[in-house]
Design brief:
Blueprint: H1 4-10, H2 16-23, E1 31-32, E2 38-39, H3 47-52, E3 54-60, H4 70-83, E4 88-92, H5 97-101, E5 109-110, E6 113-116, H6 118-122, H7 128-148, E7 165-167, E8 177-179, E9 190-192, E10 194-196, H8 201-208, H9 212-220, E11 223-226, E12 232-234, H10 241-247, E13 255-259, E14 264-267, H11 282-291, E15 294-298, H12 303-318, E16 322-329, H13 331-337, H14 350-369, E17 375-379, H15 386-399, E18 403-406, H16 408-411, H17 417-429, H18 444-454, E19 460-463, H19 465-477, E20 483-484, E21 507-510, E22 512-516, E23 521-525, E24 545-546, E25 552-553
Parallel strand pairs: 3-15, 3-16, 4-14, 4-15, 7-10, 16-17, 17-18, 19-21, 20-23
Antiparallel strand pairs: 1-2, 2-13, 5-6, 6-13, 8-9, 11-12, 13-14, 22-23, 24-25
């Protein structure tokens, strides 16, 4: 069986100018990065055309170590919709180098449903993550410079500063460090650390911005800490946002590439989904909608994380109206949630599969909270048996939702025709059914309670002492009308990673609440969230190589 990179290299990649032709974009508007990549200027966004375009979200059941394949399904669906005559663009997030060199892999799809050139997309791409990293670290440098600068000091209390550095690599040794050592002239010694770039508030802010001026203003609204007198300090007080925005003048432009079958693909932004919004930029989605009749996009992890944030944050702030939702499920994952062991997922197990339906049911219910009757996509694996497929189909029919097999990995767009036809019908039946589950004007507590009870199925919410103090700070700052970006484990619908299936009778514990005022939300944290991953025992980086002609091997 050929691996992803071999399949990608065997594809007939087209010049990006041909892909632009499919979107009706003049070649003079393209900012070329070689023959197969281009950035798209923001003036190509057309708000009138956006209102006519049909936006489709792809989400999933609770992820497992077996993998569910949202990105592969999104690309397969896009290819299939183009095959049946529907002009469709897929809009995705950019991969982070940390997972690429670690264990998870990239974010370019797989098999015959990939975006290409996959090596470029997974390695550096057009430099967007580097720009985010530089802008973030510039602010960190300006903060420390102000702490050191007695002449123009803002009087920042170093104990209140939580702004770390970032880098786009897994490096556990940098999670907690001490900076400013070396004497009086070297800085103010204090504990700090590094997060991975995808976890940066700058990344989240980029993806919530509508244009360069909005990005600059949002970067200025990033909360830094307090002065010794208790006055709040923002990035604009350090006059940092102008230079930060200047570093991101190209990174704000979305990137145009293609699928294996030559369909348009726009890739831009890459915030984590368990601590940030987990979806591509508002700009990228609007760019796709400006030039396509249909746009397929995905949100990280499952419906209670990525999809919830997509609907409540991105759609409300960005002013986009989704028209259909796809819920990706695999028989392997459902068996896992039904109690089957990871090593036994290749074996037929109808009992475990049926027990796993509880997890699927909750995610169907979550989509219904937003007004959608999702189309369930069964992402096919070779080990699925006919009896298992028929059992899952029968259950979906019993639940009153459409279900379709998706064999995009093995067959590309041809393997997702059934799914494409049902998704197109779903967009017709839902012209304006979407509604968010909370209003931004509600109190922080009410918004959190709504998410925890409706999306997770919790009985209620409790707050640790630190979280209660954070609530007081948020009220003091006048930021109660911000959105909510819940940070919790992706491994369970609940806030306990060890609870599989559909947990019940639990209370969500909020440990603390961070402010991401640049992005436009606060981040209630439940449990321990890792923002700087470490490399595994056998990292993928050990298998990646390059020959004298520049051909890369070992990249999936």
């Amino acid at each position: 069986m050929r691996n992803d990179i071999d399949i990608a290299r065997a594809a007939a990649i087209r010049p990006v100018t041909e892909i632009a032709d499919k979107l009706g974009i003049d070649h003079d508007h393209l900012e070329l990065y070689g023959k197969y990549k281009a950035k798209l200027p923001l003036h190509l966004i057309d708000e009138k055309k956006i209102k006519r375009s049909k936006l489709i979200l792809v989400t999933a059941i609770t992820p497992t170590p077996a993998g569910e394949g949202k990105t592969t399904t999104s690309i397969a669906l896009t290819q299939a919709m183009n095959r049946i005559g529907k002009q469709t663009t897929v809009v995705l997030r950019e991969p982070s180098l940390g997972p690429v060199f670690g264990i998870k892999g990239g974010a370019a799809g797989g098999g015959h449903s990939q975006v290409i050139p996959m090596e470029d997309i997974n390695l550096h791409f057009t430099g967007d993550l580097a720009a985010v990293e530089k802008a973030h670290n510039l602010l960190a440098g300006l903060i420390d410079n102000n702490l050191q600068n007695k002449k123009h000091s803002l009087g920042i209390d170093a104990r209140t500063v939580r702004w770390k550095r970032v880098m786009d690599m897994n490096e556990r040794a940098l999670r907690r460090i001490v900076i400013g050592l070396g004497g009086e002239k070297e800085g103010v010694p204090r504990e700090s650390g590094f997060d991975i770039t995808a976890a940066s508030e700058v990344m989240a802010t980029l993806c919530m911005s509508k244009d360069l001026a909005d990005l600059k203003e949002r970067l200025g609204n990033i909360f830094i800490g307090f002065t010794h007198e208790g006055k709040p300090v923002f990035a604009k007080d350090l006059k940092a946002n102008g230079a930060m925005a200047a570093l991101m003048k190209d990174a704000i432009k979305p990137n145009l590439v293609q699928t294996l079958e030559g369909n348009p693909a726009i890739i831009h932004g890459g915030p984590f989904a368990n601590i940030a919004q987990g979806t591509n930029s508002i700009i990228a989605t609007k760019m796709g909608m400006s030039h396509s009749d249909y746009v397929v996009t995905e949100a990280g992890f499952a419906s209670e994380l990525g999809a919830e944030k997509f609907f409540n944050l991105k759609c409300q702030i960005g002013g986009v109206m989704p028209r259909a939702a796809v819920l990706v499920a695999t028989i392997r994952a459902l068996k896992y949630h039904g109690g089957a062991k990871l090593a036994e997922l290749n074996q037929e197990n109808l009992e475990a599969l049926e027990k796993g339906f509880d997890n699927l049911n909750k995610h169907i219910e979550n989509m219904q909270h937003f007004g959608f009757k999702p189309v369930v996509a069964i992402n096919k694996f070779p080990t699925d048996t006919q009896e298992e497929v028929e059992l899952l189909r029968a259950h979906c029919e019993k639940m009153g939702v459409d279900v379709a097999m998706s064999d995009g990995w093995a067959r590309g767009g041809e393997g997702a025709i059934e799914l494409a036809e049902k998704v197109v019908e779903a967009t017709k039946s839902c012209p304006s059914c979407f509604s968010p589950i909370y209003d931004f004007e509600w109190s922080i507590e009410k918004k959190i309670h709504t998410i925890a009870t409706q999306m997770y199925g919790a009985n209620g919410v409790e707050y640790a002492l630190k979280a209660k103090k954070d609530l007081e700070t948020i009220k003091k700052l006048g930021l109660e009308n911000l959105g909510i970006c819940m940070a919790k484990t992706q491994k369970s619908i609940s806030d306990d990673q060890y609870k599989k299936g559909r947990p019940k009778d639990f209370t969500v514990m909020i440990r603390e609440i961070e402010v991401s005022s640049g992005a436009g939300f606060v981040v209630p944290i439940s449990g321990s969230i890792m923002r700087m991953p470490g490399l595994p025992t056998e990292p993928s980086a050990e298998k990646i190589d390059i020959d004298a002609e520049g051909n890369i091997s070992g990249l999936f």
